[in-house]
């Protein structure tokens, strides 16, 4: 009988968490893979070197051979300079033969480390990843059911005596908008019948003399208002009717009104909106309350 509200609420959240974590993992793995490439020759450079090393161009004519040889020499010199610059950058002491004159040699940025393009690409990916993670975190925070208060958690709705007094005075249920709940009295003499029908989680509240009915019609979800004349709940959408304790009396609804467990501590009444118990089956009539006046719909 227990409607898995927590499960149905948590399922899309868990899917969202999974998607955010998957996206974050992809970004992090992509970033770490690219980080491991730092300091290596780019693919284009390696292809040029490989092409020069295998002497593909040597086979053509003498001019090509000379150009290829020059390319190999230039590539080797560039690699040596890059290696030397990398060692110097890492703090390694680079020694040269005595009498060697140091000359300025431009550094091959591709061979040395992160190029400007790589820097911007990684910065962009990192910003996108951070924005996605921040959006995911805020989305989860917004959707996560609260256990401290608000609909989806436990909500204190007042003192038992006050609630029962108001119901008696106005001949109408007490409505709590935060819990989206109608509170109505449950007669003590109907408890033996209730024990055979209702979920045990509902019985403490019924024994204290209260039921907490979810305002949502179990047919198609309209809000079900209270009808003062009939002293029933009557749905304006398709005409389903329920007695004072939410047991179905007519219309297309598939069952009675869904409801929440109630905890009574001292005189404090708390409705646990994190657990929805499905309404009783069609035909349930534990209180035998008939229609007390004209219908509202
Ligand atoms: S939504 Fe209430 S009867 Fe259809």
Characterise the protein shown here.
The model is unreliable at 1-5 and 55-60 (pLDDT under 50). The strands form four sheets. The chain has a four-stranded antiparallel sheet. The chain has two domains: 2-143; 154-277, Rieske [2Fe-2S] iron-sulphur domain (Rieske Iron-sulfur Protein). With 297 residues, the chain is α+β, with helices and mostly antiparallel strands. The protein has helices at residues 5-36, 43-53, 62-89, 109-112, 116-143, 160-170, 191-197, 203-208, and strands spanning 2-3, 154-159, 174-176, 181-185, 210-214, 226-227, 232-234, 241-242, 248-250, 259-260, 262-265, 268-272, 276-277. FE2/S2 (inorganic) cluster binds at residues 217, 219-222, 235, 237-240, 251-253.
Rg over C-alpha atoms, rounded to the nearest angstrom: 38 Å
* Series of H and E elements: EHHHHHEHEEHHEEEEEEEEE
Q: Into which percentage range does the β-strand content fall?
A: 5-15%
Please state how the strands of the largest beta sheet are arranged side by side. 3-4-5-10
N-to-C CA distance: 29 Å
Q: Helical element count?
A: 8
Bound molecules: FE2/S2 (inorganic) cluster
Helix percent band: 40-55%
Mean pLDDT: 83
User: Which runs of at least 5 residues are low in confidence (pLDDT < 50)?
Assistant: 1-5, 55-60
Secondary-structure content class: alpha+beta
The major beta sheet can be summarized as:
4 strands, antiparallel
User: What is the global morphology?
Assistant: rod-shaped
In total, how many domains does the architecture comprise?
2
């Amino acid at each position: 009988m227990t409607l898995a509200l927590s499960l149905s609420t948590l399922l899309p959240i868990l899917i969202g968490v999974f998607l955010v974590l998957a996206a974050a993992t992809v970004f992090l793995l992509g970033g770490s893979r690219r980080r491991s490439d730092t300091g290596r020759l780019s693919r284009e450079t390696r292809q040029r070197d490989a092409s020069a090393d295998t002497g593909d161009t040597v086979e053509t004519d003498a001019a090509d051979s000379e150009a290829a040889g020059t390319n190999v020499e230039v590539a080797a010199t560039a690699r040596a300079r890059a290696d030397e610059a990398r060692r110097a950058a890492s703090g390694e002491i680079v020694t040269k033969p005595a009498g060697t004159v140091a000359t300025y040699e431009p550094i091959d940025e591709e061979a040395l480390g992160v190029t400007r393009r790589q820097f911007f690409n990684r910065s962009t990916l990192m910003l996108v990843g951070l924005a996605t993670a921040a959006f995911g975190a805020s989305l989860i925070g917004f959707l996560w059911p609260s256990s401290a208060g608000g609909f989806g958690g436990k909500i204190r709705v007042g003192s038992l005596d006050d609630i029962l007094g108001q119901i008696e005075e106005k001949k109408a249920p007490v409505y709590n908008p935060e819990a989206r709940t109608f509170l109505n009295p449950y007669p003590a003499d109907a408890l033996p019948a209730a024990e055979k029908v209702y979920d045990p989680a509902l019985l403490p509240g019924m024994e204290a003399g209260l039921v907490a009915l979810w305002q949502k019609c179990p047919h198609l979800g309209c809000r079900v208002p209270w009808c003062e004349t009939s002293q029933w709940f009557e749905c304006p959408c398709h005409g389903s009717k329920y007695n004072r304790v939410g047991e179905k009396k007519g219309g297309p609804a598939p069952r009675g009104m869904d409801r929440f467990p109630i905890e009574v501590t001292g005189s404090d009444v708390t409705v646990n909106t994190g657990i929805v118990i499905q309404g009783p089956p069609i035909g349930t009539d534990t209180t035998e309350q008939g229609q007390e006046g004209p219908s509202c719909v």
